Automatic annotation (TrEMBL):
GO terms for biological process, alphabetical: cell wall modification
Organism in which the protein naturally occurs: Theobroma cacao (Cacao)
Catalytic activity, EC: 3.1.1.11
Record PANTHER family: ACYL-COA THIOESTER HYDROLASE YBHC-RELATED, PECTINESTERASE CATALYTIC DOMAIN-CONTAINING PROTEIN
Family: Belongs to the pectinesterase family.
KW Protein biosynthesis (keyword) present: no
Protein name: pectinesterase
Amino acid sequence: MASPQSIYAAENPAAILIRVDPSGKGDYRKIQDAIDAVPSNNKEVVFILVKPGIYKEKIVVPADRPFITISGSKANGTIITWDDSGNIFESPTFSVLASDFVARYLTIQNTHGAGAKAVALRVSRDRVAFFGCRILSYQDTLLDDTGRHYYSGCYIEGAVDFICGNAASLFERCHLHSLSEGDAAITAQRRESPSEDTGFTFLGCKVTGVKTALLGRAWGPYSRVVFALTYMSNVILPQGWDYWGDSSKQSSVFYREYKCYGPGANTKKRVEWSQELTGIEAQPFLTKNMIGGKSWIRSTPTRFKKASTAISNNSTRHA
């Protein structure tokens, strides 16, 4: 398989275009069919353009299908929806198991509602990015499982641990909306040891909600979450953080805030084992360097080429 460096070193290479249209005017009617048409151990950028519509599909991007982009035109008009619950690795509406994946302008939702773990999106490989997506469920909405990930301009909604996992992720200009009615946590980061370079950073984000919520609770003993330059509405409880029933985690978690603002950002009553970062301490969390993003976050293709007959029978050039 080609190394990611060879893909990114090319000057925005022409992408293979596959069109999904539920009316039958594209190459495929279902998103999963378009993904399955990509060759195993794919080495080229594949751009799957999804026409507006409601897609009732449970989607998996397999591990042997790297370099795929799936793009709608408006997130609120391109909706991927399913209703499943139970195991966090089996319930997701959308599972990304391939590296070098990009999603743009999609709504990904699990409509199961309260009462069980019901993942909307599972991300379990390295170098994965989401732009302008809406990710919706109630409990464990986003299983940000493993790898380096980038979320830009996304809306993420849920009530209980709705951003969870042990990835190394940067959330930039995202809107987090809590459905919690009490003290449920927005994040549950699972870093297991100090040697793991994982954690969630929220940079320039917005936090709102229906009632009250915590910023995070410690799924792993070395749980690491940073909120920087983020607006917090009065949804955030004054204590801010929770050690999840194990007081020994107080000495090992890394919960930090930096120049956040809004009524929920007052740190005077925060738990004593969370801290505010100084300007120097904050620097590593204020750029994409923390996820090595400059080397792998790729720009949107501007040139397209026909899919081979192996991928599509009727694809036409689309600029």
